[in-house]
Amino acid sequence: MKVKNVALSEQTIANEIPAFCQKWKICQFSLFCPALPVAWEAGNSGVSQSAGSSIGVLVNFEPDIHPTSCDLVQMRDELTSILGQTVCLLPKEAIEQSENYIRRQQILDAAIVVYDSGCCHLSEPPELTNPLTAAEQEQALLLDVLIACQRIQRYTSDICWEQFQTCDCTLLQDATVRQLELIGEAIKQISQTTKTQHPEIPWSVIIDVCDCLTCEEHQAEAETIWQAVEQGIPRLIRYIEPLVWPGVPIPPSSDYVSSSLISEPA
Predict the structure, then answer these.
(1) Which domain holds residue 142?
(2) Given 107, 129, 151, which residue is the final one in a domain?
(3) Sign of CA pseudo-dihedral 134, 50, 44, 171
(4) Per residue in 54-63, pLDDT tens?
(5) Which of 71, 100, 159, 236 has the most CB within a 10 Å radius?
């Protein structure tokens, strides 16, 4: 489904984009259509992104070029000025390494190369298509939730509560909270249809808990985070897995319907 015509002038294609690529040592520059209202394409790569971006840009850098986060922010701002649209800027390598195989493959397949190794590949503005159907967007968001849950489990698999609460684990606590934030934000984007079809999952409660844990004005105590890790995350995984991979049996709804992401300790 075509969603937009990219309004790029001949000068932009022939001059401005090549000049931008040469300045930042970019060997390949491609355009794609961001699939979601919030630019989730970047995932946890730490690259520059912009909420509500109207155009996506994939860039490959020359060998041994490793831009900083500040560089990426500056590049995104320059591209916003050049293209006249808000930009989601992603190193292609970040997408290629993404754990979300649904979004990864669709973006790579749909991206249109504009500039490659010093040569322009377009003579007129491209027509971008949405890389994901509505159903695929839904699956990608559910997979985002599952990936974040699994990362939390990996982060905390070899430690106990006593270790988690120490000052030495501050970075681990921060990393865990970041994944909880991603869970909450992904669930906010999941359609009401899916939520209605699966009332056994307290979607709104999970969002509220994740928002509470990640709110800067409400810094969560380590014990509260640990309760979510130990009790809520394994339960959430059991309910999200069948939605991502149909055919996996769903536990009885009574096992989860009255629970929140954080359960009261026994």
Answers:
(1) 134-255
(2) 129
(3) negative
(4) 788 999 999 9
(5) 236
